[in-house]
Amino acid sequence: MPGRVLPALAGLLLLCLGFLAPCSLAAQNSHFLAIHLLDSASLPGKQKLPGSVSKLPESVSTSTDAQKELEDLLQTLRADGYLQARATITSQTSDTTHAELFLGPEMRWVTLHAGNVDEAFLRGAGFRERNFLDRPVRPDDVVVMTERLLRYAEDNGYPFAEVRLDSFVFTPPPSGEGPLGVEASLYMRPYRLIILDSIRLIGESIRLSPAYLRQYLGLREGMPYNESAVNAISSRIRELGFVRETQPPVVQFFADRAVIGLYLAEVNANQFDFLVGVLPNSAITGKLALTGEANLQLFNTLAIGEEIRLIYRRLQAGTQELDLNLVFPYLPYLPIGAHLDFDLYLRDSSFLERGTDFGLRYSFGGQDYLEGFLQNERYVLLNPDTASIRVTRALPPNLDVGVNRYGLAVQRERLDYRYNPRRGWTVYLRGSAGRREVLQNNAITAINDPGEPEFDYATLYDSISGSQASFQLSGKLGWFQPVGARSVFHAGWQGGLLRGGLLLQNELFRLGGYRRLRGFDEESIFANHFHIATIEYRFLLGQNSRFAIFGDLAWLEEQRLGVNRRDTPYGFGAGLDFETSAGIFGLSYALGSQRGNPIAFREAKIHFGYVNRF
Fold first, then answer.
1. 347: helix, coil or strand?
2. In what order do the strands lie in the sheet with 96-102?
3. What Rg, from alpha-carbon coordinates, does the chain have?
């Protein structure tokens, strides 16, 4: 950018004669470096070494090493305020290099004044006069400060600013011995203020709202020009999965206005995939059972960068789940977005779960965000076994429950390629707290025992009724590390904790299956507290193809009405994903063991998958 040449540093160097005087170079071999120290009158031995140089170098290997030692020594001295320091090689033999070193006076700041620089720029650059009070005059300090001033100017509407040092005053030491005092002032010329006029899409026609693009890039029309935001455009565009750059952005300046031109093209980011599981069902029919999952994910359909996701799962016989997830990255005229998730879960006609999450999300770019949300869950008991309840006078494991929680969620992702990463990590953490209440079921409270008609079955709720505090924590971590050219080691963790009164089975986390604890039937394991550690070796066959060997080890706790147990199930297996012109096909084979039971190969879980991006 114009104005980046620092006349300040040039002024210092011109005033300090000999600063750039080169050392005489020789190409002879040498093993000993003899440095003769000179004072300002060129008389040897009358100057002391500064504290930064405790001892002059003596032993070197070659004449080239001697030259490098001298250059390093001069850099150290000049960084300690000896700006006139110079060294000259006077003679060389096969085993010795002789050099003279002239230190010159030590220069120390008396002060560096703010000069004509506006207070806002000084604060933005972090300038403090006390930082230059009685300190060695170091060129790097001057460069850093002027660069900060220029950077602040560039990010606040002045991309053509100029900064330099001015009004030098040199004060000799009073007694003739000691450092030379230096006093100077900052001088800044910001030139004209530049305002961002517009962002224009050049080249291919793509569906993308200008309002969304301005919010996402942090470049709003009418704001002062921001050089850092402009430089970050390419990296921010790469974080979007549905567009790409065809060439770098360009900036055109017209008087006091700036126009940014972007060359963007759409990419195939929408995704449809399904997963079919083949599971033994010997306990019921002796035949195989099928499970399935279908996932439709759409990006930027409304041209505002939104994400729409619809998931349907058939987990077991009579068990189905429907999940609708909507993410709007920015609300109108606000720097935050919104997230809505609706989940409907039916468990083999025993209970129904309705869950709704609504959150406001602040995006840090890419997949990184911080979200505050409201969570509402309602569990409805279906067809309670009134005959059993009448006899046992005990409530079933599943009951009607209402839960309201407020919470925070954060996600960070640093992967080199999201769909088949070789390197990077992901973090997702979520926590919420609120109230839960067990609701009475009319079918249960209406039970009448002819043998004891005075017994009120509503009293069964006495020990668990009422509003109770409830909190939930969950998280997921992933780490990917390349091993050699085509191998990747993956380690991961998933965990969750649910607390709040005497819990019921239908409130608990549901584990097992391809997504969470492989080697077991889909969502067949219940827990209120669990940890799952995963290790996986992947051999990459292509950008979206791999062969993997994996293992999952879990620790879980199930504390609920009538049950208190712990277990350490584990699963292991192998998988293959391979890409074709029609999409990505996958195959997974997994075995598992729980409660100390031996591994049964007849109970192996096999999953077939397909992914298509369009």
1. strand
2. 32-38, 96-102, 86-92
3. 36
End-to-end CA distance of the chain: 42
Separation CA 38–CA 103 (nearest Å): 7
CB atoms within 10 A of CB 64: 15
Q: Return the bridge partners of 291, or none.
A: 277
Secondary structure (3-state) at 15: helix
CA atoms of 8 and 150, how far apart (whole Å): 13
The structure's pTM equals: 0.78
DSSP code, position 397: S
How far does Cα 366 stand from its chain's mean position? 9
Identify residue 342 by its one-letter amino acid code.
Answer: F
Contact 243, 206 (CB under 8 A): yes
Tokens of 256: 């006091």
In the chain, which residues have pLDDT < 70? 1-31, 39-52, 54, 176, 281-287
Which are the contacts of 91, defined by CB distance < 8 A and separation ≥ 6? Answer: 97, 98
pLDDT digits (tens, 9 = 90+) for 8-53: 434 443 334 333 333 333 334 446 888 888 764 443 444 566 666 7
Partners of 437 in beta bridges: 402, 467
* Residue 138, φ and ψ in degrees, nearest 5: -110, 125
| Structure-block tokens of residue 111 | 């002060």
